[in-house]
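Notes to self after the call with IL:
- keep both proteins in one doc
- input above output, always
- annotate only the second one for now

Protein 1:
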Amino acid sequence: MALGHCCLCLHNGCRMDCSLHRLPSHRSVSLNEYSRLRFEPTMKMKNALTTKMSLSELIDIDFSLLQVISRMGLDLSYASLPVSEACRKCGIDPDTFILICNVYSFPDHVPSPEELAGGNIRNIIDYLHSSHLYYMGQAIRVLENSFDKLVAPFDEKQKKVVLKFFNDYKEELDKHFSYEEEVVFPYIEALQRDGARTSEYSIEQFEEHHENVEEKLEDMKNIVMKYLPAKCSNDLKIMVLLSIYHLHDDLRRHTYVENNILVPIVGRLERDGK
């Protein structure tokens, strides 16, 4: 790559291709590496989550399960109750809740056929739908507001480059979730209702279409951390980076739930319906 003047960082001799916003030779700890390290302290607790535990015990083991509790519609006023009882009071299948919690908390946990057989598809789809609403309605909005503040002192050219990158990512994420909402979920619901496939679609196509929506977050992190002008507010940089790391971590867990729970359960339904 030729050396040149970068419109983002204003460094002469920058090796970053501004059209791709990536510089492999300058990379530090990647978001994927961060997520792996983030999970390591809890790996020894694998398979420790059960329906006999109270909600508060689950939260103490992994506080990020507050996201699962919220998206599944569980009421924290039942935090002292066993998961089995709290779930039933809220109309949630307890085995499905614990199944999602174990996959969400432990990325190398591959559910057994027995665990998957007890999964409630309606609860799983509702959870994934709530996750989509959170990402596009809250997480992206928080990140967008932080970016707007961060680039406020930029000249128009710099601002346009950074915001275009963010908006392209936002559009890609929305497209990804829309595909799941408009194609995948209706297909699964019809498959469960009719007991057999009524179209040529299969869950294998979902796996093929399941693009990695995390890659551009890596680029976004590098832009904010390394290539923005010195006049940027350090506090705002940190705020944006925290939002990026949090979103990336949550999206990875979301992907684990889809790949390790939804896909095998639907695959079994397809085979049974033949």
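Protein 2 (the one to annotate):
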Amino acid sequence: MPKKVIQPKVDLQSTIDELQSKLARALADYANLERRFSEQSSAVVKFATSSLLTKLLDVRDHLGLASTQIKDPSLTMILNSLDKILVEEGVTTVKTDGVYDPVSMECQEMGPGTKDQVIQVIRPGYRLHDRILRTARVIVGAGSSRPLVGADPRVRPINTQN
């Protein structure tokens, strides 16, 4: 008879161990799920405005082009105000000086100049925090020694000095 009592204790202990192991895994899975949900929620909040900001960048480009043609202090003030808002929302200009970066730039054309170096910006690119909102359109050097003269004077990146 004592053997029957010992056997259920062993069975119960193995069942307890198994259930404790399952509970520990379930708690770890739940903690991971909470962490993933928190990360995704913060990313949604962080980038919720990206669609609107992308549309505002087109308006900003048009105002920038207009300000190169029309020297009006009111237009400059509006453009500076829009730039300030964009910067406050986390928008920054993609750096286009130096080596061509296919992630943040679109090569529109190859021109005379140092190989794989950006030689002219056609349209500035922008980032929202760590993501590309809009790629920069650039002309990239093809490797010949004769450089392209001058950049497009109409291209004016966001003024971050406000």
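Annotation: Helices lie at 2-47, 50-69, 73-88. The beta strands are 91-93, 105-111, 118-123, 126-128, 131-134, 136-141.
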